[in-house]
Structures are given as C-alpha cells and as structure tokens.
Amino acid sequence: MTTTAAATADKPARISKEDRVALAAIDVATALPGKWTVGRGRTRDQVADIVCLATGVSVGFRPVPGPGVWRYRLIPGDFPRELHDVFRWYRRDKLPVATFAVSTSATEVATHIHQRLIPAFQQWLGRAQTALRDRLETQARQYDARRQIATQLEKAFPQAPEPARIYYVADDRMSITLTMPIDDALARIPVLAQALSADSATTAPSTPPETQETT
User: What's the pTM?
Assistant: First the structure.
C-alpha cells in the first residue's frame, strides 16, 4: 500500500487543454504593454480572461473544442449593456475574434491583441453605438410626427367618432386611418384631394406656354 501511494505521488499531474490556455493567458498578459490582470473568464466557456487596468479592455480565452486540437480563441469584451439589443447589426457585423495554437509565442499573441484585435473591437463598438443612435433618432422622429399629426387631425376632424390611427411604415413614411361618417367624408373629399395633390402640384416642372405664330 505504501509502494502504491509513493508511485501515485511520483506520477506527474496531467495538464488539460484548459490548464494550458490559462497558463497562456498569464504569459500573454505579461507580454502586453501596460498593466494587465488575469481572471477566471467572464463566461462559462472561457477558462481565463485578461483585463487592462488602465482602460478596462478585456479579452477572454476560450479553448477550441475537439479532441487533439490544442488551440484557443480570443474573445474581446465586455461591451455596454445598452448595446445588447441593437437589433440585427450583430449578425451582420460579427464580433472580432482570433484563434491561436496553444504553442504560439505569447509575444505574437500580445502583438495581435494590441495592434489588431482591440482596434477592431473598438471599431465594432463604434458601429454599434452609431446604429443605436440612429435607431433612437428615428424613434424620436416617429414619436414627434405621430404627436403633431394627431394634434392637427383632432382639430381638422372634430366630429370624427374615432381618433385617427397612425402607423409608421418605413423610410419616414406614415399610414393614417381616419374614421368618420359617410356624409362628412364625402363633404371633405375635395379638401383631402387638394391636400394630397399639393406636393405634386407645387413640385411639378412648369411648362412654358405655347407661342402662337403671327402672320
């Protein structure tokens, strides 16, 4: 029994892929410019992450799944919570990542993080923030337009049994539904027709009057 225990103690511990990736994170953090700290990873599938103490930029280390594949993937983050719901831009504009073999030099990985991965991530954040601003501005325009249209329609159609229903269609266009008695609608047809044709009448190119030849 003593012999067996001694043999087990002498047997070297097996190092997993996760262990090697975590050790690589330590080496990469040391090779990066500035002061970085090493953590246990932001998500369940990240075995480690490094965080810049000056800027707060973080990079996660995620092992690449598969037997015999000794690689890991770098995942930059975190990004602000308000950007989580910026609709469909995320699928069109993928989060920048990079994959390295476990045996890759820490200096090479650090250089890629510093020169390419972090700048690409900052550009990615910039595009996301622009998309969010554009969406908020569009929503504000829609709200103001609905409010102004509803106010004017209430004054123009005081006898309408139901308020006008206003919908946003697309490209800054609105759909308006008015409900009113038939007689009232018939009486207002000329005014509505004139209002609807006003833009085309004012923007139509003017044609020069025909000249008559004099003899």
Answer: 0.64
